[in-house]
Amino acid sequence: MAKLLLVDDHAIIRTGLKLLVQTSFAHCRIDEANDGNAAFEMIKDSDYDLVVMDVNMPNTDSFGVLQTILTVKPSTKIIMFSMNSEEIYAKRYLKMGAIGYLKKEASNDEIIKAITLGLNNKMYVSQELKEILLTDLKSSSHSENPFDKLSPREFEIVQHLVQGDSVSQLSEKLQLHTSTIGTHKSRIFEKLNCHNVIELINLAKIYKVVLPS
Questions:
Q1: What is the pLDDT of residues 107-135, one digit of tens each?
Q2: For residues 43 and 124, what is the distance between their CA atoms, to the nearest angstrom?
Q3: CA-CA distances (angstroms) from residue 105 to 4, 109, 154?
Q4: How are beta strands 2-7 and 50-54 bridged, if at all?
Q5: 100 with 71: CB under 8 angstroms?
Q6: CA-to-CA distance for 35 and 191, rounded, in angstroms?
């Protein structure tokens, strides 16, 4: 019997996914979690054949959760589930070890395809993302996305900065000392060649860094 874990802070989305999986996969056990911390505790205590995890959940650093899960249980197969841009986000999660990146607006057939591939230990990427990755490989002159220079933590902090969060607010949300946030912020500005948050916002718009909803 296959064991799946659905991780999303919206109960209606978990319910919809659960019904879809139950009608497509016989004898499948499905567990649910509403945030990254709950998911991690469940994954520690049980082995899942596949985890489908939302990217944007309150009080959840999805980059950190993914990294922690794969550090503790490296064989865990995880498909990230999101409305965020594939071009910006998918490559990061795949590079970190996710087995797929699934858009929330995907059709039911595409969702089932992704889950089927994941259960069979195969990577899932959409046709659109395949074309993006192939273009990147074939084009020797394509300009580098400056946000690719950032670490997962730095990229997480960028999203909050662009939303208008202050260093103190970030410190509270990410449970990091203000001096640590300040150091990250300085490194981000240096890597992106920005001098202030306004320049950072403009750069994020240029490279279509979609903010969490």
A1: 999 999 999 999 999 999 888 887 777 76
A2: 21
A3: 20, 11, 27
A4: parallel
A5: no
A6: 31
Nearest Cα residue to 212 out of 101, 7, 59: 59
Cβ within 8 Å of residue 1, ≥6 positions away: 27, 28, 29
Distance between CA atoms of 26 and 40, rounded to whole angstroms? 26
Amino acid making up residue 121 = N
17-41 tens-digit pLDDT: 999 999 998 888 999 999 999 999 9
Asked if CATH classification 2.60.40.420 holds for the domain at 2-136, the reply, yes or no, is no
Query: Tokens 């979690």 label which residue?
Result: 33
Q: CATH 3.40.50.2300 occupies which residues in the chain?
A: 2-136
Q: CA-to-CA distance for 202 and 181, rounded, in angstroms?
A: 21
DSSP string, the chain: -EEEEEE-S-HHHHHHHHHHHHHHSTTEEEEEESSHHHHHHHHHHS--SEEEEES--TT--HHHHHHHHHHH-TT--EEEEESS-IIIIIHHHHHHT-SEEEETT--HHHHHHHHHHHHTT--B--HHHHHHHHHHHH-TTPPPPGGGGS-HHHHHHHHHHHHT--HHHHHHHHT--HHHHHHHHHHHHHHHT-SSHHHHHHHHHHTT-PPP-
Residue 211: what pLDDT? Answer: 52
> Quick one: fold of 146-206?
Arc Repressor Mutant, subunit A (1.10.10)
